[in-house]
Amino acid sequence: MEWREEAIILGVRRHGETSVVAELMTRTRGRHLGLVRGGRSRRQQPVLQPGNRVEANWRARLDEHLGTLTVEPVEMRAAAFMESALALQGVQLLAAHIRLLAERDPHERLYEACLTMLPNLQDCRLAGGMMLGFEMALLDELGLGLDLSACALTGAVEGLAYVSPRTGRAVTQAAGAPWADRLLPLPRCLVTDEAPNWAELVDGFALTGHFLGRNIWVPRGQDEPQSRGAFIAALERALRAAAEG
């Protein structure tokens, strides 16, 4: 068995004295692992950094085997990420999210989203909205997407202001008023094309975090990734600095 395609490095773990097991995100083969012989060498280490885009060649005798990988650099971004706390936490959070996907299960939509996000993770004006959109897409890809198309109670498509924490369906401000303290705020940026402000991002991450936690992290016995809180905190600092500067 053999395949070759571009991929994004998610991370590596040591294997023996000189090798590593690399974790990749590919367009057509999803999250994929493989053994990189000599992956701890001075030549290979800079290539095998999270966020780098590579040309990967995988080989194995049988499809279910771990297999071996050779990688060649296509786009090296890891060094730039190290200079930005926002980008560094962002690429780690993307990797944590992608690890929620079944290995070798293709998710081309999420792969394309990663390609779009990686060049923009250092830009605080774009990174927050993109990450929020990625979490929404992740829920959708996992079969847990939110229905924000119309009010669950009235069918109205205007004036949507809340989301039911139980069903994930939108509710208008008028219809949801009696239960406002039990509903989750719906940020406008999720139902319009407007760029989000900080308050909307806070509400948006609370919304996606609720459903990721209830439906994925808790049932799997997992905690919210530390990189998620770190990313949100770095985003707040970067936006504050941009406003002041």
TrEMBL record:
UniProt keyword DNA damage present: yes
Residues forming coiled coils: none
Domain DNA replication/recombination mediator RecO N-terminal span(s) in chain numbering: 1-75
Keywords noted in UniProt: DNA damage, DNA recombination, DNA repair
Function of the protein: Involved in DNA repair and RecF pathway recombination.
Protein family: Belongs to the RecO family.
HAMAP family xrefs: RecO (MF_00201)
UniProt protein name: DNA repair protein RecO
UniProt lineage: Bacteria, Pseudomonadati, Pseudomonadota, Alphaproteobacteria, Hyphomicrobiales
